[in-house]
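Run log // design_07
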């Protein structure tokens, strides 16, 4: 097995499987030892460069989703149509690289029925509560999401503080 093909499994398994890590480290030591025996300083440099680049790539995918969503929030304006807001925020899924979970954008949505109007709330993944990823099914907590609130197809506000301060207005209640 070429050394380059072993980089990704080793660094991404650091978070998953200790037995596999030890097995892959033994393989890498044999490969690096082979570099030394051949006297290939250039091969060793390339090996270390690829190791570093792979390690960075293992941790960037979901971070990129959160960062992009936070940057896009700055482009929103009250009064935008839902279509305009979704175009700015994006609707592509992210993550899913090297065993990482995939996150949909928007992550979830809900309808809140108030006594006089119905509002739609769509949530985007923007924060991280626990920076340690485990290989279990991903659960994104509500405090890691940013809500966008739409009334009659128009953006009226966003953020947890906006939603919380207006929640009584949108509570499901008896029809009058």
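design_07 sequence
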């Amino acid at each position: 097995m070429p050394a380059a093909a072993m980089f990704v499994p080793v660094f991404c398994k650091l978070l998953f499987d200790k037995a596999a890590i030890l097995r892959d480290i033994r393989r890498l030591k044999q490969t690096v030892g082979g570099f030394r025996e051949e006297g290939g300083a250039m091969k060793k440099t390339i090996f270390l460069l690829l190791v570093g680049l792979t390690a960075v790539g293992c941790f960037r995918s979901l971070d990129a989703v959160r960062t992009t969503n936070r940057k896009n929030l700055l482009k929103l304006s009250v009064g935008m149509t839902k279509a305009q807001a979704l175009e700015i925020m994006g609707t592509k899924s992210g993550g899913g690289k090297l065993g990482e979970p995939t996150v949909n954008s928007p992550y979830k949505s809900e309808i809140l029925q108030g006594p006089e109007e119905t509002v739609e709330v769509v949530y985007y993944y923007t924060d991280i509560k626990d920076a340690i990823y485990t290989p279990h099914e991903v659960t994104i907590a509500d405090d890691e999401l940013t809500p966008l609130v739409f009334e009659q197809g128009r953006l009226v506000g966003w953020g947890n503080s906006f939603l919380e301060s207006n929640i009584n207005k949108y509570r499901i209640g008896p029809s009058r």
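The longest helix spans residues 18-38.
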